[in-house]
Each structure stands twice: as structure tokens, then as C-alpha cells.
Specification:
The chain has 103 residues and is mostly helical. It is 41% helix and 10% strand. The longest helix has 13 residues, at 26-38.
Amino acid sequence: MLKRRNETGSYETQTNLRGKKPKLSDADHQHILSLLEKQPDITCLEIIETLKLPVSIDTVWRFLQQAGYRRKKKSLHASEQEHPRCGAEEKRLERPYIWIQGK
């Protein structure tokens, strides 16, 4: 405690130095949000590749959730809904997600 008092001038513990440091900076946050405005159907992996971020998909996913974004599946167009679907010939229809602001 004396060493801390001599170094910092206080006996208080420095709680602001605890925990993990954020991997995304404020500049990264702004770049992600601006990219999301331009391309609302972009995936987390595409965000990482476009901005060359050294983080995982989960990190970007958690940031987007904290920023208030949710994913929403694009609905099928009328022509896509009329395709016949049968057993082995059924093809997976690509229904990408879009990011929407809100709850």
C-alpha cells in the first residue's frame, strides 16, 4: 500500500485497469456502422474481410447487438415462392439476412 501511495499519491485501487481491453476501437465502430448503412445485407465475415479487422465473427456480432442491430431474414419474392419443392430435388433457397436498427 505504501508503494501504491508513493507511485500514485493515493491508497485507492485502480479498478479502471482491470478486465479485458476492447479489441475494436471507436474508429472501428464508426467504420462498421457506416459500412452497414451502405450494405444492410452484409455478413459479419464480410465486414471483417472488408475492413481487415483482426477480430472474430463473434466480436463483430456482439458489437452489432450492443449497437441495437438485429438480423432479419429477407422474405422470398413471389416468383421464388412458386418453385416446386420435392424430396431430393429440393434446393436450398438463399435467404440472406439484413441488419435492422431496433429491438
